[in-house]
Amino acid sequence: MKIENIIAELKKNEWIDLTHSFGELTPRWPGFNKLSKKIILDFDKYPVRTHLYTFPGQYGTHIDAPAHASKSGRTLEKIDLKECVLSLCVIDCSQKVLENPDYALKVEDIDNYENNYGKIPEGSFVAMRSDWYKNWPDQEKFLNVDINGEPHYPGWDIKAVEFLIKERKILGIGHETFDTDPPQKKEQYPFKAEVCILKNDIYQIELMANLDKIPARGSVIFCIFPKQEGGTGFPVRCFAICPK
């Protein structure tokens, strides 16, 4: 098939942006400062404008590379292009999160998903749908702090993560919140599920958007990010191509 025909066929499908735009007011993990930018070339002296940006690599919708949790882990430039285009499986936990903001996706959620949609294919990207992205761009709603200063938002149970890694051999994983580990799941402190993912040489995408617009099975995810040398994380442009 000619490349033009392949492109035309792809464009007949639904294209869904899974990425939040980001700027100075972007919700962020509380240990990070907000983005700052300043103009270093402008139209008063040049025919172009250029900004200097300062922000943590893990900012906005972003990738965590294996090196984020391991000195010997792969950095961004070592992630193969073919790992950036994967079959997408979306596990919907939105109703459970609505009832319990501290909900952790469990192995039984994976079992229920597979009973309805079939076995998760090896080499897939698995995303947890919580609908938490709808709190964007409100930092307070994203953290959901109680009167004692404790944050409440959903994530993954480490046993579910281990199952996907060992039994389904996934290549990517993602969610809509700041962290893999729900902050109220104290037995996973600090970042045990996240570290498990990354130390198994799998990348993750955090702060995803629009997973409620994606079918549970049958889409393809594209995770595009700069080829930054030695990078442990960076903002991404993720999108899915879904059959109409």
Automatic annotation (TrEMBL):
Gene3D superfamilies for the chain: Putative cyclase
* Entry-linked SUPFAM superfamilies: Putative cyclase
Q: Which GO terms describe its molecular function?
A: arylformamidase activity
EC number, as in UniProt:
3.5.-.-
Sorted alphabetically, the keyword list is: Hydrolase
**Chain segments annotated as coiled-coil in the UniProt record:** none
> Per the record's keyword annotation, is Cell inner membrane included, yes or no?
no
Task: Name a biological process GO annotation.
Answer: L-tryptophan catabolic process to kynurenine
InterPro entries linked to this entry: KFase/CYL, KFase_sf
**Transcription recorded as keyword:** no
Name the UniProt record assigns to this protein: Cyclase family protein
Q: Which species is this record about?
A: Citroniella saccharovorans
